[in-house]
């Protein structure tokens, strides 16, 4: 059973490997509320996962350590297990779906683990990990549904109360539920008045559905930019802990997550992955009542794939009205492009892309289309530019803003 003694023991054990990450107030992001960020994105390996993995491995017997460990992950858990194994002199095999980003595969190898790429998706890699356990006697290190792993993650609850003893609300990302299980257990045991909220991506709301229907439910599929919490089914341990100790689990959209990632970068100079930013998104977009309360958003990780970072930023800029992409129909004659550019310039926007198409099927033979991408200040600025273009006699074909 999970106990406070176990969590305190985990905290003592983790002193030799895990950082006590900073608690930073975010006044630029939340000028009208007292919101703090618990920056686990700055943790060693870039996420909280090393806490649970290291403590779990420290509890193995000498025989189990000698046999080694195996895990299945394409992200933070893989790196956490790999580092924890290296620090304790344990051989580790990490099964990763072959479609995983190369950067994450190489990061796992860099910590000293043996990586086995498995054809298919996560479920295929998980089955291969189970086969390795049976063939070799290695111990499986589960990413969330394990009491020692939960205790390791629960050390974050101790740190939050130490750094922010009068906290009223704590907002925590939820995937399989290991993190929120440990954090909520500690908070509710030591300070029952604290409200604990979980946050899932709307495209991977397995815990939300399970709690709503009062039994564990598995999703047929998941789809979200927050790949670190894209879990189809919670565990039985984590479901029970969440049901008992968590006040509510809410959801956020990918667009809301993208805006949170951008705001963290611009206003706090922090890089967060989608899974790490969902807690901030919930606070920013009113999914949790934070008015008049002292709030802690747990930013659980910062290992965002750079290949999708630019797409996430562009999505956020569009949503905030700071990026305007439109296509207009115009006559194919000299001076049209100059006129459109002049309108944009007069209204203080910056053109960053132009595509002129004379062969569009949606226009007549004497017309062409012009696609323009501009940087703008906000939605009001977009509306101002749009009206000016319409007043000049141009017809919009498509818009993206």
SSE blueprint:
Elements: H1 4-14, E1 23-25, E2 34-39, H2 49-58, H3 62-67, E3 69-72, H4 76-87, E4 92-97, H5 102-110, E5 114-118, H6 122-136, E6 139-140, H7 147-163, E7 169-173, H8 178-190, E8 195-201, H9 206-213, H10 236-245, E9 248-252, H11 254-268, H12 274-284, E10 294-299, H13 306-319, E11 323-331, H14 336-346, E12 350-357, E13 367-375, H15 379-391, E14 395-400
Parallel strand pairs: 2-10, 3-4, 3-6, 4-5, 7-8, 7-10, 8-9
Antiparallel strand pairs: 1-2, 11-13, 11-14, 12-13
Helix pairs in contact: 1-7, 2-4, 2-7, 4-5, 7-8, 8-10, 11-12, 11-13
Structural features, described:
The chain has 401 residues and is of the alpha/beta class. The protein is built from 15 helices and 14 strands. The radius of gyration is 24 Å and the shape is globular. The model has no long low-confidence stretch (mean pLDDT 93).
The count of β-strands is 14
Helix content: 40-55%
How would you classify the quaternary structure?
single chain
Q: Give the termini distance in whole angstroms.
A: 51 Å
- How are strands sequenced across the largest beta sheet? 1-2-10-7-8-9
Structural class: alpha/beta
Biggest beta sheet summary? 6 strands, mixed
Global outline: globular
Beta-strand content estimate: 15-25%
As residue ranges, the low-confidence spans are none
Question: Secondary-structure element order, as H and E?
Answer: HEEHHEHEHEHEHEHEHHEHHEHEHEEHE
The average pLDDT score comes to: 93
Short description:
The protein has helices spanning 4-14, 49-58, 62-67, 76-87, 102-110, 122-136, 147-163, 178-190, 206-213, 236-245, 254-268, 274-284, 306-319, 336-346, 379-391, and strands spanning 23-25, 34-39, 69-72, 92-97, 114-118, 139-140, 169-173, 195-201, 248-252, 294-299, 323-331, 350-357, 367-375, 395-400.
């Amino acid at each position: 059973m999970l106990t406070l003694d176990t969590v305190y023991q985990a905290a003592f054990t983790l002193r030799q490997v895990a950082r006590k990450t900073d608690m930073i107030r975010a006044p630029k992001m939340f000028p009208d509320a007292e919101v703090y960020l618990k920056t686990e994105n700055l943790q060693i390996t870039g996420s909280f996962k090393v806490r649970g993995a290291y403590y779990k491995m420290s509890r193995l017997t000498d025989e189990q350590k000698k046999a080694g460990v195996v895990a299945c992950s394409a992200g933070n858990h893989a790196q956490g297990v790999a580092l924890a194994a290296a620090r304790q002199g344990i051989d580790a095999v990490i099964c990763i779906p072959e479609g995983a980003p190369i950067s994450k595969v190489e990061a796992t190898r860099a910590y000293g683990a043996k990586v086995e790429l498995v054809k298919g998706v996560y479920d295929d890699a998980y089955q291969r990990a189970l086969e390795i356990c049976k063939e070799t006697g290695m111990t499986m290190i589960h990413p969330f549904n394990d009491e020692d792993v939960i205790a390791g993650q629960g050390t974050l609850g101790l740190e939050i109360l130490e750094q922010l003893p009068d906290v009223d609300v704590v907002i925590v990302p939820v995937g399989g539920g290991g993190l929120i299980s440990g954090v909520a257990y500690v908070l509710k045991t030591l300070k029952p008045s604290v409200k604990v909220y979980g946050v899932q991506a709307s495209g991977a709301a397995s815990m939300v559905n399970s709690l709503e229907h009062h039994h564990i439910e598995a999703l047929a599929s998941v789809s979200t930019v927050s790949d670190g919490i894209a879990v189809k089914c919670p565990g039985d341990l984590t479901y029970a802990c969440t049901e008992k100790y968590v006040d509510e689990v809410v959801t956020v959209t990918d667009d809301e997550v993208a805006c949170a990632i951008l705001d963290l970068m611009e206003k706090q100079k922090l890089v967060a992955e989608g899974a790490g930013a969902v807690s901030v998104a919930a606070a920013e977009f009113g999914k949790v009542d934070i008015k008049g309360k002292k709030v802690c958003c747990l930013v659980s990780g910062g290992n965002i794939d750079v290949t999708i970072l630019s797409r996430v930023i562009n999505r956020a800029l569009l949503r905030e009205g700071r990026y305007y992409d439109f296509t207009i129909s115009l006559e194919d004659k000299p001076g049209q492009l100059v006129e459109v550019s002049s309108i944009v310039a007069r209204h203080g926007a910056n053109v960053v892309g132009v595509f002129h198409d004379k062969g569009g099927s949606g226009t007549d033979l004497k017309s062409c289309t012009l696609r323009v991408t501009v940087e703008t200040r906000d939605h009001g600025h977009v509306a101002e530019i749009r009206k000016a273009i319409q007043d000049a006699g141009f017809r919009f074909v498509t818009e993206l803003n």
